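Shipment paperwork, digital attachment
Item: protein structure file
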Amino acid sequence: MRLQGKTAVITGASTGIGRASALRFAQEGARLVLADVQDAEGEALAQAIARSGGTACFVRADVSRRADNERMIDACVERYGRLDILFCNAGINLPKPLVDSSDDDIDGLLAVNVRGPLYAARHAIPIMLEQPEGGVLLFTASKTGLVAQTDSPVYCASKGAVVLLAKALALDYATRGIRVNALCPGIIDTPMLRRFADAMPDPAAAWTEYRVAQPMGRLGTPEECAAAALWLVSPEAGFVTGVALPVDGGFTAM
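Attachment content:
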């Protein structure tokens, strides 16, 4: 019960890494606010956590909107009396060359991947500073925030921004009780990746290509990312801040 007595807001909580993290955090005793734009999935997850003896509520939140970020954080404080963990996990992809990316493509991706964490952190930090125990911020970045990949320059730029945001905030609040880190998943078997593969001309070939590109010869799982996220937000990582932790099967070691 590493998160017993703690409260957490998780964005992008309905599926993939967010869902796996919500289930794991709840198992470890955290009381949760699940934020997402997928209402049915979010409500179902909150109910599943409650049936298993945990505590969670769902708040619809579009993280590209400042007001939604503030509302989900306020919901945590109003419901549970405090905010211990903010896990900004929501994100979208843009697998396009820059010259093929429209203004709407660029603005939409940066709104979710960069402005969302900025808005959320800006609202959460003053709350955490008022708490004797401080708090923890965790951002889902990506291996592409550490090493580039072809035909995804806007996505790479957004995840690089998230990595440096985590490092900069970690320094700003290192002596004020707030730890800040970034989780950098590699290619993970999530519903979003499966939808992307299914849209390819040869989904089976695309899936094989993802697998063989990994030094470990397989894709990662959301549960493996959730385990890393749990450690980063837990007291066990009490001396860890400003870290961008790859969970990528060795990809960034190449």
